[in-house]
């Protein structure tokens, strides 16, 4: 277990980290409409924008909220690392830039 996860898990023992990306998935797509936040603490006043499902993002890092929840650091801010809301996609699936661009197939 890496240092960041170990420190975060001590803050909130009720989080099931199996439901989250705790290592950088590199690239994700949204499975539902989600919010992008200015900080790792998901408070309504910190919402930057809402993005629709099937929005693709390059992930720069995984950071943790004050309460220990994993967050994906993306170019536009932070989004959920919850596997219910985002799904890792492979390099081969990349058709164009994923930073907030909605791809239609």
TrEMBL record:
Q: Which domain of life is it from?
A: Bacteria
Pfam families in alphabetical order: DUF5776
UniProt xrefs under InterPro entries? DUF5776
Q: Could you identify this protein by its name?
A: DUF5776 domain-containing protein
Q: Where is the DUF5776 domain?
A: 20-86
């Amino acid at each position: 277990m890496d240092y960041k996860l170990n420190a975060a898990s001590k803050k909130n023992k009720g989080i099931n980290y199996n439901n989250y990306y705790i290592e950088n998935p590199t690239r994700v797509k949204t499975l539902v409409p989600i919010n992008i936040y200015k900080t790792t603490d998901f408070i309504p006043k910190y919402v930057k924008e809402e993005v629709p499902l099937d929005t693709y993002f390059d992930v720069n890092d995984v950071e943790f909220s004050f309460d220990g929840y994993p967050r994906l650091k993306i170019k536009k801010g932070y989004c959920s690392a919850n596997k219910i809301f985002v799904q890792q996609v492979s390099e081969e699936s990349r058709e164009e830039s994923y930073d907030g661009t909605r791809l239609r197939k």
